[in-house]
Amino acid sequence: MKRLIFKVFELLLGTQRAFLSLLARLLFVSRNTAIAPRTILVLRTGGLGDFLFAVPSMVVLRRTFPSSKIVVLTTSSTHRSKQQHVEAYVGGNNWYPWLDFIMPHIVDAALVFRYTTAGFLWKEIRPEIRKLDPDVTFILAHPAEQFSNLARKLLFLRFVGVRRNVYGWRTRATEAYMRKTQYKAGLYPHKIMGPLRSIAEYPLIPVLDETDIAFNLNVDPKARRFAEEQWNLHKWSGRKVIGFSPGAMFSHKTWPLENYIELGRHLLLDPDVVLIALGAPEDRHLGQIMCNVLGQNCVNFIGEINLSQAAAVLQRTTLLIANDVGATHLATAVGCRCVTIRAGFEYPGTEPWFSRNAVARNPVPCSPCYSYWYCPLGHEKCIKDIPVWSVLALVKQSLYS
């Protein structure tokens, strides 16, 4: 029976792949791929965390083609409501500050389409794409990106002026149906692997494995000096600086603040430990409450520092304990270990890469529900019922083993 179910899945996915192949052949011409491309365009949408998943693939492109011009085409989301959420946690007028981490040493330039109207794309983005005239374009896809999303991206690329050699649409799985079957078959890898698979379709990309995964983020020297000043000011040198990120974009991704406070009390029994609160400006009040309760060995950075400064602080931080937020992916990218507290709305595969085994979960019967915006049953038990002791055990393992 299981074999029959998987055969049905393969048939459905094969049909979709055939359609995408036909669409790509109709929209784009295939030109010589035996020589290094002069210009490369990469398409990747998403906020901080989703964008960072794609950075290792860009690192591979730069390493493989050191003389090519690489341009990233991006937006935080094509859905205005999600864009507003991203803008809320970024703050200020720089809606895409994570681009500073990869320019110009990984990619040469970025084209940002904050608006997705046909008029804006035609007048503002298309002329730039036509001027670039990319020799090859990569859709840095999620490993189980849905057929409809990939089809739209192919059409989008043609609309904005891409004419040849598009890779990254050859899906191996989908989140649209039969998820349990695919997960059990090992078709849902970590999401960092999706973009790497996309570029691996190109003939000149060498065979890749996990040892090729690197972020190589550029952290602004001014931000690094800021972090050094904070460590000197608070006399943190030689101490265990543990970051807490108690906020999240949605309620069903948020571990209760009282649990963070209880965890903090346990950790502060070690006189070498100091706590810092990190997160989006909209979560400033969470850091204030936490530090007011925990006292002088807790410092609130939420809403006080920008993203570059947060990256520099995380470079010096011993451990970050956080919900499913972009800060965990930034932390792993700059070398900070993480313990993450995660809801059960999807199968594993989005954890911070270098700490993907240090994850607290509550395996409730209703997970995964794939409801990204809210808990369908309203109880949020997958995140709210994770006990403090289980998180503490992971923290101690990370700190002292």
Task: Describe what this molecule looks like in 3D.
With 401 residues, this protein is an alpha/beta fold. The chain folds into 2 domains: 13-212, 3-Layer(aba) Sandwich (Rossmann fold); 221-400, Glycogen Phosphorylase B (Rossmann fold, 3-Layer(aba) Sandwich). 42% of the residues lie in helices and 11% in strands. It is built from 14 helices and 11 strands. The protein has helices at residues 2-27, 48-64, 80-90, 118-132, 147-159, 179-184, 193-200, 221-234, 257-267, 284-294, 307-316, 326-334, 381-384, 388-400; strands at residues 39-43, 69-74, 109-112, 136-139, 166-167, 240-245, 273-277, 298-300, 319-322, 337-341, 359-360. The strands form 2 sheets. It has a 6-stranded parallel beta sheet with strand order 8-7-6-9-10-11, with helices on both faces. Helix 2 (48-64) runs parallel beside helix 7 (193-200) and helix 9 crosses helix 14. The longest helix has 26 residues, at 2-27. It is globular.
